[in-house]
Known about the structure:
By secondary structure, the chain is an alpha+beta fold. It has two domains: 4-93; 98-266, no CATH class. It has nine helices and nine strands. A nine-stranded antiparallel β-sheet has the order 1-2-3-4-9-8-5-7-6, sandwiched between helices. Helix 1 (4-49) runs antiparallel to helix 3 (60-93) and helix 8 packs antiparallel against helix 9.
Amino acid sequence: MEDLPAFRRYYNDHMHSKLRSFERIRWILLLKIVVAFITLIAISFFVLQAKLSAFILFLPIPYWAFYDYVKREIKQFKKKYKPIIVQGILDFINPDYCYYHDQFIAYDTFNRSGIFPVEPAIYKGEDYIMGKIGEVDFEMCELHLEHPSYVRSRLQKLFDGLFFHSKFSYSAKGRIIIIPRKRRQRFIGTLKNITRYGGYEVKGTGNSTFDSRFLVFAEPTVKFDEILTPEILESLNSYYTGSKKDVFASFVDDHFYLAVSEPYQLLDANIFRTNISFEIIQANYRELQVFMRIVEDFDNSH
């Protein structure tokens, strides 16, 4: 459960000084970018004023080099920031949790969730977290998926957000798929996949608010009312209400999967404004706590 006063004290004692040091790095990076940009403009101005036609054709090259330089510097800056924040928050929640910035959930694990109807052309991620909640093993990360567009000859985003997987100790057989009602057309392939083998739409879960927001499809071998307990329904409802993000979930035998579309990258450092803000860190802390609480609710109700 959340303990914001204790987390505030922890932030002041263990994280604030590290963020202050990191803030100096951010200002140095901004200064480097500004100096490089001014130098680029000065070179362009000189070439144009001197009418050095032989060099004008090559002007795009330094602009491309500047873009590549800024992109690499920002990537390195964010890479250094993540361990400070993520590991700091995890040390407060549970020091036994593990964090690996450059790793992500295996594709086979993602694919077994059965949530997304196609195999992505691009599957990549970062910020892998793993641990144990009670007796329940879990893992989560950020994922970015792309797939060829059906109407345009280019890749389009299939999913960009957080993906969570846990394995429970109880025994079950079958699948349950949960998707937002407003995304039904986009996930027709997912629904066809489960109904092809006798799956059906659950018309009522006992929570009218949840039913108005989500579609639930289940295979005949699974007892959905034993898995979708009032606590689980309320947890998913509360998360949707607070975040306004698309939430997708599935239960496959004794595995639980949760995918949350993020309008921003969780825990990313900001380049153009300060990162020394307890409110920002608190929002990230709450985001991570939500997933832990869903697992706790499920585990306690079974």
